[in-house]
Amino acid sequence: xxxxxxxxxxxxxxxxxxxxxxxxxxxxxxxDAEVIRTADRVVLPGVGAAGAAMSRLRELGLHQCxxxxxxxxxxxCLGMQLLFEHSTEGEVECxxxxxxxxxxxxxxxxxxxxxxxxNTSQSTKLMADDSLLSxxxxxxxxxxxxxxxxxxxxxxxxxxxxxxxxxxxxRKDNFCGVQFHPERSAKSGVKLLENFLTCS
Amino acid sequence: MTTSLARRIxxxxxVRNGQVVKGVRFRxxxxxxxxxxxxxRYSAESADELVFYDITAxxxxxxxxxxxxxxxxxxxxxxxxxxxGIRSVEDAREVLQQGADKISINTPAVxxxxxxxxxxxxxxxxxxxxxxxxxxHQGEWVTRQMTGIPQQMQHTGHATxxxxxxVTHRGAGEIVLNCMASxxxxxxFDTEQLKAARELxxxxxxxxxxxxxxxxxxxxxxxADVDGALAATIFHNQTVPIPELKSLLTExxxxxxxx
Lengths: 200, 259
Fold this sequence. Notes:
The complex is a heterodimer of chains A (about 200) and B (about 260). Chain A has about 200 residues and is α/β, with parallel strands linked by helices.
């Protein structure tokens, strides 16, 4: 099993590397298109702003490379958001693999933004048997940290609600994404990452 | 309120020379245990996140010792924040690269408030926590800095509530308000001050200082509507075990992540 973690420019990527290492899988942290293309699994992490991450992927010539991948790909947090078409965070064109536009969460009474902390995730009826959810409890708890959200749609596997109801887990073909940080979501996160490594 | 976002229980580990220590009202620090041992225990006990304060970094004029940050990142699978002596985007980058999820700044933000904006621009709001040490002085809540070493402790000249508004405006993603008069006393959180802070900011607000028993957590969540509550001694010495605390909070109708 080879696992490539794409160097999308975020600073705190090592927690993802450590999480896979605890699952006995050594990851290669890389911006090399060839290494990414030939890996068995690819993770697109990301922390920070959509614009900076997309500029970096374009500069590295990885924009098309990622779109063309056929092996299982997991976007985490901003990496999941980049799978969508467009972000209102600086009006940025993203990878366009999943339809939809990212919008900012609104604060209000009892609603803090960023959405930071542990929240539950509800699977959608159509996608409840997705392999990523295998062995997870009903409405599992995950650790979220974000200010922008991805809409729900055909690709939504599970949702989360913080004022808005948004996509917590998405899948389109071989591309999946999670808004939360599985590497920091205790047992549920470990199980999800394990599912990603073992899915076909 | 349409969210099931849990209120967070956050053990705070004050780090000095690679060990966890704790003082009373910021003085007389005693060794409480090994960093990795405590971090692993809290992770297993369903603590929601951890905060590590390198309490002597700022007064000693150095940034965080990154060696233990990397070791913590390797072993735990819950988020953690690192504070102490982060003075620049480069200092912060180093800590985040070692695997910390957030960085918290206190004294350096007071000295150069633009640092908050710079960190937000570099890493996003969600990584940037501003810690505030505050106490009542001549009838007004004011901030203090260099709280790690008593002889160097100073007033910063900021009114606490104004400073909270300013750092929110500068893009801070979370505020930890440490009420110094309560710190280490175990007499309860300063709900009055926290409530006043809550009314001024819509970013996550974490209560710190004064936790002595489980009911203090019920009080601070109910009365001050804070997003998380931080404590040290009572978790380190297991006066209040986290699983029991979470059961009590659930019974009191406060949403927490179950064990």
